[in-house]
Amino acid sequence: MPPKVYVPAYPAGDFRAMPALGNGHALLKWVTSFPGNPAQGLPTVIGLALLSNANNGTLEAVFEAGAITALRTGAAAVLAAETLGRPDAESAAVIGAGINGKAAARTFAARGHRPLLWDIDAKRAQAAAEAVGGEVAKSRDDALAADLLVTVTPGHEIVLAEASLRAGQHASLMGADGPGKAEIAVEELRRVRVFCDDWTQASHNGDIVHAVEAGAIARDDVTELGAVLSGQAEGRRSAGESTVFDSTGLAIQDLAIALAAYEHAGRITDLQEVEL
Known about the structure:
Elements: E1 5-9, E2 13-22, E3 25-33, E4 47-53, E5 59-64, H1 65-84, E6 92-95, H2 99-110, E7 116-118, H3 122-132, E8 135-136, H4 140-144, E9 148-151, E10 170-173, H5 186-191, E11 193-196, H6 199-205, H7 208-213, E12 222-224, H8 225-229, E13 243-246, H9 251-263
Parallel strand pairs: 6-7, 6-9, 7-8, 9-10, 10-13, 11-12, 11-13
Antiparallel strand pairs: 1-2, 2-3, 3-4, 4-5
Helix pairs in contact: 1-2, 1-9, 2-3
């Protein structure tokens, strides 16, 4: 999985090319991030994901990239929260109720939590809460106080300032997935235990990059989530430790979602097949 390639179209947004190879298949996701699109009635994320056979190169399926991205984002956010959060964590909340935030809340609900949702657009938060079986937080601060927190914002404003995470709390940061974006203050990253999905990507285009450039943290201060899941690295070390997961989104996760959907395509009764 080579690191994703960014093609900037700032200040409006950017394009991203994300390739990955695995399990006999290759995937390329060509996707956008244009945060101002909702104001024009357009989705923030637009694009396609192409799934090919790795043995002969034939194209086998084409997916709408927004759906793939949402499923992957929700799954990664909650997996990190469950892996790094306290074993006795009870409350869960999502800041940002767009398509990816709603996916994270839906995943929390599927895992037995009743998530709180907060969004700057109260109507959007209410609609998302009703769709996933969650509830709207009484305030932003109520959502930020959850044991397991997921932030899925455009990344243009700091959500977690210095000293904002309490002892034992976990936050999965899913919104700052490109240059210039940040959801957490550098001072807070210096104070807490930091994890990421992929160091190469996160240290160049995630929340971590700002702390690296400031000299606040280095490679040895950050643990990849995959290393924790495979038993190669230590996760949470104490009940009082505050943990943060910085996600930039991995193409290999998109490939896993695409393969799962492809394998279950036969269950869709009105699926239309076309020659590619």
